[in-house]
Design brief:
15% helix, 20 strands, 30% strand, single chain, 6-stranded antiparallel β-sheet, Cyclophilin, alpha+beta
């Protein structure tokens, strides 16, 4: 029997495979990668009864148009997404996020666009028939690592699907409250004292604009210039997701999942773990504000974030 697969009729802007990421490779220059929005990633898997670390399709802005070949599947899309299901008899259904659907052979999923967010996720029951690279399914297009030779998917590519049991699956859905908050909470970076009192005041009191220079590697901001009173370059140090670097031009850069593993710009702050999904989803043109919190506050906020995630996961049962 031939394997089921998606034929890509339109690739979309940035269609890749992602999971929780690959760990313990920073020392050889390999970033963690993984889904930009980890909560939406695991919810998509839960809704189709997958293991929470199963591979999914991540897309940005305009998503792919996919036709199912050789099989029948259950799928779900998570995020703030406009999509339609085109049946083989040409009937068209409006899709609803966080709700599982059955797709028959020759049916199509048209992921038209994200709405008030950047990224969305497509999970299928059983997962995709792909291999891990260094313990992860994630595609890192900067290093050409992962499935599809480490590249974004293109027109006429195929994404093969593992055999799944659609008969015994329960159709599931949850009511998800999509946050569009523009207050980003941070703790102090390792070079916080490199910046003048005036720069620190501006950092926490004035607006910053998310520019069009956004990808899975990071987000460039535009706003008040942050004055560095020590040195605009430092010896390269290790970077993590969420760290906020400030180059010589004074405009901050927030590192995301495919960030470089080292960098030589001073670091004024780090986005707390509970706000990483949020900052990754904000669209170009959005104004944001930074708010400083203590390490203890960040830990408590992350506990609340985890509790809320578990609440959604429990709704899927």
């Amino acid at each position: 029997m031939n394997k089921a697969y998606f034929e890509i009729l339109r690739a979309g802007v940035n269609t890749t495979i992602q999971d929780k990421g690959r760990n313990h490779l920073n020392h050889v220059g390999i970033a963690v990668s993984g889904a930009i929005d980890q909560r939406n990633y695991i919810l998509s898997n839960k809704l189709v009864e997958n293991q929470l670390n199963e591979a999914v399709v991540e897309f940005a802005y305009q998503g792919p148009l996919l036709k199912l070949k050789n099989g029948k599947i259950n799928f779900v899309i998570s995020g703030d997404i406009l999509f339609k299901i085109i049946r083989k008899n040409l009937e068209v259904e409006d899709g609803k996020c966080y709700k599982s659907y059955t797709l028959d052979e020759e049916d199509q999923i048209d992921i038209i666009s994200t709405k008030n967010s950047t990224y969305g996720y497509l999970a299928v029951n059983g997962g995709f028939d792909i291999e891990k690279t260094w313990g992860s399914y994630s595609i890192n297009t900067k290093a050409n690592i992962g499935p599809n030779e480490g590249k974004k998917y293109s027109l006429n590519d195929k994404i093969f699907i593992r055999k799944s049991d659609t008969k015994n699956l329960n159709k599931k859905n949850i009511n998800y409250n999509y946050s569009t908050d523009n207050i980003i909470r941070t703790i102090k970076g390792t070079n916080f004292d490199y910046f003048s009192r005036n720069a620190i005041d501006k950092f926490f009191k004035e607006d910053f604009l998310i520019t069009n220079l956004v990808d899975r590697m990071g987000i460039r901001l535009k706003g008040p210039k942050l004055e560095n009173i020590v040195n605009t370059n430092i010896k390269s140090e290790g970077l993590i997701r969420g760290v906020i670097q400030v180059p010589a031009d004074g405009n901050p850069i927030i590192m995301l999942s495919d960030h470089g593993t080292v960098g030589g710009y001073p670091k004024i702050g780090v986005v707390i773990a509970a706000d990483l999904d949020l900052i990754g989803q904000l669209t170009p043109g959005t104004k944001i504000n930074f708010k400083e919190v203590s390490l203890e506050e960040a830990q408590n906020i992350f506990k609340a974030y985890t509790d809320e995630t578990n609440k959604y996961l429990n709704e899927c049962n």
